[in-house]
């Protein structure tokens, strides 16, 4: 990436629906930490309404949307619906909740399901489909997904071979944050392979500094950042096929390949010469909030921090996030091969009825036109794996880098493994045991065996 921030230009984009996106009068913007960034007023955007005529007269119809995306991230979503509402006459009613996962199930069971929900876990989607609550996506939505997403994304929105939910937003997790200015001053280069990254870590440690800082604290969800570390390394060391077998429990959780991967993670996180820069000893990783864990990079207490693209919002106001600035990120390097796999997450648009207005809106959200509109009304921290997204419409160079990873035809993508596992494991035993692995130095094999024993039998 060579872009610090991009000026936007008038654009006409044609997509699978034949919809033209028109952008008028947009200025340049600067990208900084703290979630700041230039955005476009939704009133400046319009779409060709013709593709939605096949859904019939929608004037006066309403579509309710239920999601875990809340203030302040909700407003760009709401703004991105304005062109669709003006085009079709549909009133989109948005409701965000921090209790989304629990309350969605309650609402479905009580007969009060929304028209559409943004489901972030494929496992939850499968549970809702098994209850008969979710209807298959319309053909127009499926056509968009076939054209604009990697096949793996469609699979995550499908259950038993039936396609239900189109991908929406995405986040790329396989990033290492660093300070370009600190690297330049010390004469360090961004590593391109895992071996180069370890050699760099050794070089930094030999200088008397700590190469890494980390934190897995997250309240009741403490431990989840360690799951991302493990998933990233399994994907790199054992490969995508073994990753799939592990996530679906076709091989046991304590398979030797998984143990090798966790020991590889331990070579960094449990190495007292490497961690925990500016924060304490190895055990401090378990009590350091993940939101604070990368900040020691700014004062030189550490040099690298592995965390997802969304971490950009945690840097202090005014931080120059660019490839030659205070902070930037590089892809976590491959262990095998030349191309680094991409670990990520995202949401899926599940519909609970097949009303024409619901289908029209679900189709709109699957289109490249919506992805480009959403990019232009959002600040830093949002990206989509929709290949029809023009990377230049994203306001953050980190988001642009993430989008390029998603759009790389040679990159292997896999969804966050813990989100695919049963809740008792992915959001339970795995969090707990990886925390014990760090906090109490619990042995690798015992950790993985205890997670294996927590896997539900049916």
Automatic annotation (TrEMBL):
Keywords: Signal, Transport. Transmembrane segments: none annotated. Residues 1-24 form the signal peptide. PROSITE patterns: PROKAR_LIPOPROTEIN (PS51257). It comes from the Bacteria. Belongs to the bacterial solute-binding protein 1 family. This is Carbohydrate ABC transporter substrate-binding protein, CUT1 family. It comes from Geodermatophilus saharensis.
